[in-house]
Amino acid sequence: MEKEEARKRIAELTEMLDRWNYEYYVLNESSVSDAEFDRYMNELMLLEMEHPDLKLKNSPTQRVGGQVASEFRKVPHKRMMLSLANAFNEDDMRDFDRKLRETLGKDVIDYMGEVKIDGLGMSLIYDGGELQYCLTRGDGNVGEDVTQNVITIRSIPTHVAEKRPFEVRGEVFMPHASLEKLNRERAIRGEPLLANARNAAAGSIRQLDSRIASSRGLDAFWYYLVNASEINQHVHSDSLDYLDSLGFKTNHERRRLHGIEEVLAYIREYTEKRPTLGYDIDGLVFKVDNIDDYDVIGYTAKTPKWAIAYKFPPMEVSTKLLDIFLTVGRTGRITPNAVLEPVRVQGSLVQRATLNNEDFIKEKGLMIGDTVILRKAADVIPEVVRPLPEKRNGSERPFIMSDVCPECGQPLTKVQGLHYCLNEECPSRKIEAIIHFASRDAMDIDGMGQRVVEEFFGEGFMTDIPEVYTLYNRASEIKALDGWSDKSIDSLLNAIEISKGRSLEKLLFGLGIKEIGSKTAKVLARRFKTLDAFFPLTEEDYLKVDDIGPVAAHSLFTYFHDEGNLQMIETLRFMGVNFDYLGADATDTSSYFFGKTVVLTGALQRYSRTEMTNLLESIGAKVAGSVSKKTDIVIAGSDAGSKLTKAQALGIEVIDEETALSYLEKNIA
Length: 669
Ligand code: IVH
What we know:
Layout: H1 3-25, H2 34-50, E1 74-76, E2 86-87, H3 90-104, E3 110-117, E4 120-127, E5 130-136, E6 142-144, H4 147-150, E7 166-173, H5 176-188, H6 197-205, H7 210-214, E8 219-225, H8 236-246, E9 255-258, H9 260-273, E10 281-288, H10 294-297, E11 307-311, E12 315-328, E13 334-345, E14 348-354, H11 358-364, E15 367-368, E16 371-376, E17 383-387, E18 397-398, E19 413-415, E20 418-420, H12 427-438, H13 450-459, H14 475-479, H15 486-499, H16 504-510, H17 518-528, H18 539-543, H19 550-559, H20 563-575, E21 597-601, H21 609-618, E22 622-624, E23 633-636, H22 642-650, E24 653-656, H23 657-664
Parallel strand pairs: 2-11, 21-22, 21-23, 23-24
Antiparallel strand pairs: 1-6, 3-9, 3-10, 4-5, 4-7, 7-8, 10-11, 12-13, 12-16, 13-14, 15-18, 16-17, 19-20
Helix pairs in contact: 1-2, 12-13, 16-17
2-(butylsulfanyl)adenosine is lined by residues 82-84, 114, 116-117, 121, 169, 171, 223-224, 285, 304, 307, 309.
């Protein structure tokens, strides 16, 4: 076919296929048969194969998946992806309303009530009428580019009539029907069933192979036009109607609510309707409808003050406590766990729950065989609340705590009501330590989760953390195991290799030092820059660091004075593991604000408070909420009030926004 002719036909086919996708996936109606749709799709694929240079960026053919990524590109959000403050009852809701009425000086406020979709927050960025890319929420500041997977969701428009740049936020989720279908297929293949729609959706979006993501039946609702006023939208409910008109799928359970009483009625109504929606919601969201009020109402560091999430109370169900078994954690701590008759609560199938420790079981008076009340909130782990003794039939038996480790048989030691296995060589502890080392917030070794670690440990391929880095010697043995191919081994070994280059905070957290969570690890890494700096430190040295108390200081000191740990660290060094801090602020200690405690006050012009806070923190400053003797610098915007007065009284350096920005110049993109 002539090039020009091909170009024309490609445009035609694209327009048709996009329209049919929209009809089918957004409007739930369709004007073509599947066969016809497929025929045109095939024609387009063939044309694109013949003329690869004519293939459009957002071609409908992309939506069947096919691209395989090696990892997701990290991309900073232009505007931070905020979360929402929570309300748990009517009183919290009335407080929210009262504060807003005070701030705005209004008697009644118009709200938008929406369902809170329990999925994955996502941002879509459009420009020139084309979808540019899709980002996950990430930590709110930096997300991951998952465009290839997200565009397999056919209800998402790739071409829109609005040509100005805009950003839309919403939630990708797995409808109940998709989860059920997926589980039927998994059951046939003998694969473990997915218990929870949210995790299933998250797993699908994180698939590197977009064909898999495409097969998962995901969908999405869009609920927030980020730069609404830039496209002349001043009322939230209108902006959602506008998104509708552009072809986005918005959620139609939404309602404009006049005043708090209507808000509360909406809550009661949707508490009832919740099970019938066909997808999981974990609450309701209420937003002030007038967008022009947002600036007046303002933001906290992480949440807008003009919106709130009402969380449903945790659901309670009853089930049977079939048995109690013990597990050994990374630190040797023994935890009793409940084996429950499987029950569905809040979108997940629950069959295990932690029972914390022996005293917990005694205090609740739990017996094996009891009928128990189980409680689960949406994003929270299930909890055994109490037994129902009236349901006993005499076959129940008391739980007797073992005095030896269930794994290695060594006698347990009891410290402050908790049981520990102190055997450093206990296999369970080692397995847990490796799982922790490889986990996402630690060395982030993709593909090395609990099951793989347990399998390799069981086979004797690795018995300790450093042996993760000798696994390449075992490639042929791994291949002999069920379910491993050259490709999957390659990608695991590759992930292991990549992990050698992670920044110090990840390694530090991965070592599993008691009391050192990922946040503290980050503070320490920023402060000391390299692992070698820790060896000579005393407890006093650690105590000088913000956020480190005596318990953590002691734990760090003990860890870096243990011969076994030092040997392990040397082996890691020998394997080529990076020991240095590589954060954005790693080398740049030259910034005026580095290491300083800064307080913001008054209204800033160029940046929002959140943006300014992020910027300062990213270059190693600490941003505090109030002025004290510890404050180094106050940045005062217009109409600064009591903080400014206090700073002046304490003789603290006060600078205006322009001056702050001039110091920050080289840090602003
Ligand atoms: S509005 C700045 N509306 O819940 C306002 N969020 O817990 C941004 N979510 O991060 C959020 N349904 O991922 C909004 N109708 C809805 C929502 C919703 C689900 C998620 C979203 C948000 C999280 C906060």
